[in-house]
Design the sequence.
């Protein structure tokens, strides 16, 4: 297997207090109440006679549920293609439920015959939307339903799989990060069987390959998916430029390396490449901040591209620098040289990459600050600030990132 490298340094940490334990207990109680309410709601919605008739007539139609975030989906895409090929050889029809943010990617990878986008927030918070989506699944009819993510989400995945009424309903068998131990038995009861996978830490590409082999695609090996090129989506203002892309955003402040350090990297690169700043709609202000700090002309595309347009921007970049976010994984599937700044909450699960089949494309290079507390699953023992990076992310030095960047930016 090949593994992209990560920089290392040592660190010390203080003793924790009881505040985190109280917060965890409160959160667990709240989740258990919601878990019960969702199950009652689902049972009420699916009492419809048409749902029962659809379940009785279902054949040669499989439901795949992969409703997590963009980066997770990209790490699964190659496994999803292999699994879809297995079902197509048997003449089955495939319906894939994905986070709505991933719908365009799912279509581009051609994993399923039908892609059903799911608004995660509304599914959890809007009973009407949830009821309509569950009925849609129940009334379609499926012979099999597979929850194909390692980290099962009881509020979402169990509801979707349970609504299918499929005779065969499968999920991962190992410990889930997103379900408290006290809720596991209730969650497991949704499924007729569980896919075997190794316990303990495992890089997500390898985990997905193991699950895919267990489902019947026995010759599949962990690999990075390849997103087909769509040159028509490439921004005209970048034609003819040699450029690097800075992506300072992430799904939350906890994962964001300081903007001033992104700008410092941009300043060092600006004499040799055009500087492009990119990100989603939530990153517009952050992009402006980095651009202003660089103090030289840049092309700021923050909030101005779709996900597939961003993919084409990354495809032609000399280098991509970002946080542990979807953009780093998007860069990987288009073959861009990526430097990714990582924290230690789940080390080696998402970065650095580990593959069983290597092609000509570079693997992302992860730069982190390993500490004794790595593997905390976000139960941080250091002071946590809502608008700042976690301690392990903040400790990643400018010099460490520059070393990785300068090694790739050739």
Sequence:
């Amino acid at each position: 297997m090949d593994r992209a490298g990560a920089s290392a340094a040592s660190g010390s940490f203080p003793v924790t207090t009881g505040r985190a334990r109280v917060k965890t207990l409160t959160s667990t109680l709240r989740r258990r109440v919601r878990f019960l309410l969702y199950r009652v709601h689902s049972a009420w919605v699916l009492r419809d006679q048409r749902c029962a008739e659809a379940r009785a007539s279902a054949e040669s139609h499989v439901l795949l549920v992969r409703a997590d975030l963009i980066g997770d989906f990209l790490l699964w895409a190659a496994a999803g293609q292999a699994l879809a090929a297995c079902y197509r050889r048997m003449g089955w029809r495939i319906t894939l439920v994905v986070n709505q943010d991933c719908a365009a990617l799912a279509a581009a990878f051609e994993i399923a015959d039908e892609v059903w986008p799911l608004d995660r927030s509304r599914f959890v918070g809007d009973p009407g939307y949830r009821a309509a989506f569950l009925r849609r699944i129940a009334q379609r009819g499926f012979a099999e339903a597979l929850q194909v993510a390692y980290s099962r989400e009881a509020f979402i995945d169990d509801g979707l799989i349970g609504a299918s009424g499929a005779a065969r309903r499968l999920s991962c068998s190992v410990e889930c990060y997103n379900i408290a131990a006290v809720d596991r038995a209730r969650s497991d009861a949704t499924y007729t069987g569980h896919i075997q996978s190794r316990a303990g830490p495992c890089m997500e590409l390898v985990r997905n390959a193991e699950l895919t082999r267990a489902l019947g695609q026995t010759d599949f090996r962990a690999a990075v998916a390849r997103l087909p090129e769509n040159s028509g989506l490439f921004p005209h203002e970048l034609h003819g430029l040699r450029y690097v892309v800075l992506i300072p955003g992430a799904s939350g402040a906890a994962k964001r390396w300081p903007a001033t350090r992104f700008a410092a990297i941009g300043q060092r690169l600006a004499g040799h490449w055009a500087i492009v700043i990119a990100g989603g709609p939530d990153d517009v202000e952050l992009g402006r901040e980095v651009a202003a700090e660089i103090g030289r002309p840049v092309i700021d595309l923050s909030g101005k591209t779709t996900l597939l347009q961003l993919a084409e921007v990354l495809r032609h970049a000399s280098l991509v620098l970002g946080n542990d976010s979807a953009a780093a994984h998007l860069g990987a599937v288009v073959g861009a040289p990526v430097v990714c700044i990582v924290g230690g909450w789940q080390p080696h699960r998402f970065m650095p990459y580990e593959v069983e089949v290597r092609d000509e494309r570079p693997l992302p290079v992860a730069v982190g600050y390993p500490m004794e507390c790595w593997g905390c699953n976000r139960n941080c023992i250091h002071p946590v600030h809502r608008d700042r990076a976690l301690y392990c992310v903040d400790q990643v030095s400018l010099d460490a990132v520059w070393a990785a960047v300068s090694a790739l930016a050739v």
In short: The chain has a mean pLDDT of 87. Residues 19-45 form the longest helix (27 residues). The two ends are 26 Å apart (CA to CA). The chain has 15 helices and 15 strands.
